[in-house]
Write a structure and sequence with these properties.
Blueprint lengths: L1 H10 L8 H14 L1 E5 L5 E4 L1 H7 L3 H4 L14 H11 L5 E8 L5 E12 L5 E10 L1 H52 L10 H38 L6 E4 L1 H11 L1 H6 L3 E4 L5 E4 H17 L8 E9 L2 E8 L30 H11 L3 E7 L3 E9 L3
Parallel strand pairs: 7-9
Antiparallel strand pairs: 1-2, 1-5, 3-4, 4-5, 6-8, 9-10, 10-12, 11-12
The protein binds adenosine-5'-diphosphate.
Length: about 400
Amino acid sequence: MRRVKERMTTHLQETDIDSVQELKALKAAIDEHSIVAITDPQGRITYVNDKFCSISKYPREELLGQNHRIINSGCHPKEFFKDMWATISKGQIWRNEIKNKAKDGSFYWVHTTIVPFKNSQGEIYQYVSIRTDITERKKAEEDLAEKNKELETIVYVASHDLRSPLVNIQGFSNELVQSCKELRLKLGGDDFQSLSPEIRTLLNQDIPEAIKFILSGVSKIDTLLSGLLRFSRLGRAALRSEKLNMNEMLDTIVKSTEFQIKQNGVTVKVDNLPPCLGDNVQINQVFSNLLSNALKYLHPNRKGNITVLGQVVENRSVYEVIDNGIGVSPAHQAKIFEIFHRLNPAQTEGEGLGLTIAQRVLERQNGKIWIESIPGEGSRFFVCLPHIS
Ligand code: ADP
């Protein structure tokens, strides 16, 4: 047992597990909360816990002795598993998101960490895989990507075609305003007391008011159409990937919002950020939007604190824009990336397009954006992009 403990502590990076009881408790906790499997060096399954059986829908006896490929979905390219084997057979830990197939043919997604265990001769004698079910999140992401793709194709055509009738409505409404003025002049200018009060109300109030509403509606549609056009153009814009100095970029963005920061008494702290690979203009747009949102959705009852952090995780540069603002409830966290989705439209100005654009921009650059948030406490927006040193 001590030898196992020694091996485990090495792999757990020198944690201070110093009793068999602690080790047992740790194992029980992992077993209780995660989907666990152990394979031999050839990939044959030697152990599965109940959660593994329940997600894969295989009874334990059908899994034991089988090659781990039994749950492969066929959805990942060969290189994906080549990379996995190359990593774990060197004795290194491998982590990734995998789509697996259950016995009944249905698919599920798991975040997987595979830890190789070595014996005292330095040979790998087993691989322990710990998984978490991420099917729901993946489904939400897939649905969203699908929805966005559909939207993008109709958006471009629609926004063009809707523009011309809109210009007509605007033009003829302005003509009606003019006609009303002429009518009033013809009826005796400002002094058309001879007319009945009903006609005066019509000419002085009802018609101008109706036209005002029409024009304000037109202007709203016009803003939406411009937003749609902007969004649909993104998919076509040429990308120029280069090494981005994120410290310089954030410095410029923070400087450009200095007035707003000072006016609201907000503290903004930017840590040392790693570089990444991306399109300068578009990534700038993403971070400008995140910072401007962090400023816009601050909590009314406390001083704003915004922090930008960055680190390299498995060859990805992962940035965090953290605020102590109003936060976003779990039910709305996927929705805020949908086009024109705004949580409290009456309280703040905006188009509900910034995060949709950010998501689209990052998708095209092999990046990702997601949120973690506690309503009433604040939000943490993560942006991840390929790392380059
Ligand atoms: P906009 O800010 O123009 O509404 P976005 O797409 O940038 O559009 O954001 C969509 C919605 O997400 C916002 O309307 C707001 O409700 C929510 N949101 C975005 N950022 C934050 C934040 N930092 N804190 C709280 N809510 C946020």
